[in-house]
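Cross-posting from the modeling subforum.

Setting up a comparison between two proteins and wanted a second pair of eyes on the formatting. Protein 1 (sequence, then structure tokens):
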Amino acid sequence: MKKTYTAKQVDIKRKWYIADAKGKVLGRLAAKIASILRGKHKPIFTPHVDTGDGVIVINASLIKVTGRKLKQKVYRRYSGYPGGLREVALEDLLAKHPTTVIHLAVERMLPGGPLGRDMIKKLKVFAGEKHNLTGAKPLVLEA
């Protein structure tokens, strides 16, 4: 009788990857990063266990979007109070907070709930070339 493999905490070996967002398309890069954070690139992948690796993203301000998304895409959040709907265009958000754009794109590709919250903690995004995680010895992510 065959049994389904379930990853245990002792089996999980975590690595760090570094992704350069310069000239990359936002959605494609976010999908690759979400897959790494989730652990789908590993043979020990288990859907209900966080088997993923960490990802460092640099040059977030130089990300590319296709079509007319810069003008048309709108990020919304609602406080729950009357008149509490806030909207900001992708173009404005990319100019003020480029790290938020990548963070939101990846976060929305991960599962909701406690598992997704644990996975998104392993994502570090930097607007420029420099990052402070050199001690992690990240491997280059080909995306």
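Protein 2 (same layout):
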Amino acid sequence: MKIGFYPGCSLKGTSSEYAQSTISLAETFDIRLVEISDWNCCGATAAHNLNHELAVALPARILALAGQQGLKEIVVPCAACYNRLSVAQHQLKEDETLKNRISEILQMPFDGNIQILNVMQFIEKYIADRLAEKVIKPFERKVACYYGCLLVRPHNILKFDRLEDPQSMDNLMRKIGAETLPWGYKTECCGAGFSVSRTDIVAKLSGKIVKDAADRGADVIIVACPMCQSNLDMRRPHIDSYLHKKTTIPVMYITQAIGLAAGIKKKDLGLKKLFVAPEFTLG
């Protein structure tokens, strides 16, 4: 089976382990993710605050390229990329004048029928039903599933999961043997794009998330967004300074967690790239 794949900037750089684990997981289930040729940045996180036409044209070009390359579905693991592509697709479907203007700018026809899948939707659609036969090392740990703010907002456009208490990640983690904790911080903001410019804000917002997960007894925080993972993991020294204590709870991508349960080698999941390494083993 062949499905389109849009890695976005993060998965080609600071979050290459997310791409690595997503591709490895897909291959384990006989799925080949085909990267969109000549893709560009989707504009996250600042373009939509600066220039509306640019903010729509950037993701529209990605969708146009996917259509030209015969792709009917594309997997978009990054929550910010998923958000921008989905919002642009919605806006172009709703506004014929804008659609014509963007097509003129791009000199390419826009294909508005491509299905955009975030990583949970991809797993639910193509992998979830076969998980039981692949799980050889149950993920028997207490987990706090962190969705962040971009996977479920704006809800009227994305129509993905529940706005305040999403369950898709929790359901998938339970399928591989995890105990998911009830948690009020599932969709709180981690500081997002302030990771470089305002580490003090990230330390405060992400610190509250890390502390609450640890206080509830979670062994690991599970994420599906490279910005969230980066803020909660890479900025741990700033978080610890804000909290005035050292925190050791690791932050893993859902693809890494499922991959471990399915017996994929740690090196193929990019686990060595995590700043706070998981101390537990499975099986």
